[in-house]
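Appendix B. Extra example for self-study. Work through it before the problem class; the solution is given directly after the inputs so you can check yourself.
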Amino acid sequence: MSEPIEGHLVHGAIWTIKELYTYPNEYLYWTVHIVIYPFLTGLVAGAFVLSSLYHVFGKNELRPVSKFALVFSLALLIMAPTPLLFHLTKPWRALNTMLTPHFYSAISAFIFVYLTYMSIVVAEVWFVFRPFIVQQAREKTGYLGLLYKVLTLGSYDVSERALALDHKISKILAAVGIPAAALLHGYVGFIFGSVKTVPLWKTPLMPFIFLMSAVISGLAICIATYIAVMTFKKTYICLTTVRSMGKTLTLFLIIAFLLESLDIVFHAYTAEEFWAILSEIIFHRFSVNILVLQWGLGMIVPLVLLLIPNAGLIRSFVASCLVVFGVFMMRWDVVIGGQSMSRSLAGFMKFKMPILPTSIDAFREGLIVVIFLLVMPFVLLYVFNKVLPVFRDIFTEEECEIHTKEISRKEAHT
Amino acid sequence: MSLSRRDFLRMGFLAVCGTVIPLGSLEILKPEAMASLVHPYSKRKRWAYVVDTTKCVGCGMCVKACKLENEIPFNADVQRTWVERYVQLNSGEVIIDSPRGARYGYTSNDPQGRAVEQDEIAKGFFVPKLCNHCEKPSCVQVCPVGATYATPDGVVLVDRKWCIGCGYCITNCPYFARFFHPVVNTADKCTFCYHRITKGLNPACVQACPFGVRKFGKLNDPDSEVFKIINTERVAVLKPEFGNEPHVFYIGLDHIVR
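Solution. Structure tokens for the complete assembly:
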């Protein structure tokens, strides 16, 4: 029976539907923004890893996407904490976390981890695009010229020596950025994994589960966006680049799937007190979400699509979109599904996302803000692309052929 | 460089035993390892609470008193204390509810809105709940800004002027004793009526209970009734497995209580 809720006085009451016995104060307090926040940070981490594959691991066939992936991770990174501001009931006090950080709390270090990572990404973007910025600062006039002049930060030295140094620094930053990205997202996983009251979250595997899903979502969104943008720009796409990304995606997809299923198998096997209600969530109430959408459509189908040899652009695009969708569903199922079993272990809560902004709460946690948060990274990418040559560094057909041959030679060698 | 088999065995054996045995003995002789790991209650002189569920009739006066005393909007479905009703039927089915936190009291046989006949019921009882003012409160541990804190006398409080409203403390409370205050929009919870107890008065709920279900006092104080009960009777706490060391002790707790 759903308990009638009097008035809409209480935070959480408008989107929570209670069933059976839930504690009187129990509502879904962490909702859609806590879904989007790890989703966006995950995309950041994945996109950054992709750009580092070229910079650090010498995967030369990924050169055309490395700049794009780097700038895209910056766009996503800027948006990553915004869902939290919508989530806080006192957003203007957000900076209290910096004024009186309480380091026993798993979330108090977020702003510091975030700012560290942000400075690494911003610095790398600057070093990677510096020659272009200097050139534009010299050529362009007016407001745009002024913007580029500011962006040079007064450094106009583009001699060979300076550029070599730039290259070295950006390589170091990319290398440092990988553990930083892993830390940022593993840390988000820790925030969930350390909540001892929610059985679905409380597992030491959580940081690794989050990290792997982060990498696959970031790789996948880069593949999908890259193919879409290049197709719309009617530009030649080197299939070798796409396939190389697809191969990395496949590898991480397998690890992510293994970790997620290990978690569930472990819960089922140990069958602690909460397993009765947890299995009800997994196999009944969230069965479509978890089994069909998150695992079936989001992992197994793309895995099959990617494992069949000779993936083309359409197949890679579809597989990548499915992976992104699957990871979003995973965040949803973890956050909403985890909380929808009552802490009394004797009842359930359903989340009904507010569609129309009928009140401040309904607006803050509603559909309009969700769409805004999910669209903004693409808007930022569009803006950045106006200022920096994000998509210009691409392979010609000849270059693509050279890299294709090089890869097949390497593969034959191994 | 070469090593004879004899030297290898001799020196290897000496080195491994030489490190393992002294360090291993540290573990064996560690005083904590000998001591009991069961702590029945805090060693501090701190506030504690006793609920005698065998006496509770579900009148809801405590909930009402708390709402009025602490200015939690009466009609809002959040409360610092509430009373749960447990009904176990002859069929073995358990029905639990707490409509409106029981602020209007229980007046009819309708758990979860179901009509239940008297002779269907195997056992039924009421369990008042409130913040457990844990010795190791996980809500305090997770507050990112330190807005929630424990006082030296064992009461967990929230600073309304500093709380950012992230809800992490609410999520981390095993008892769901916390909620967002409908007016000030910050995390809110039972304070043991800190404004009253520091003046020598009882919490409003204890004051309002007509049946002596709720008792309040200091631990480790030989004159305190609460301390006598906790020390001499068989009491239980809710969800001890979370390690929070709750300091609301229950008499007559049943295993179906959540």
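Self-check: Chain B has a mean pLDDT of 94. If your reasoning did not lead you there, revisit section 3.
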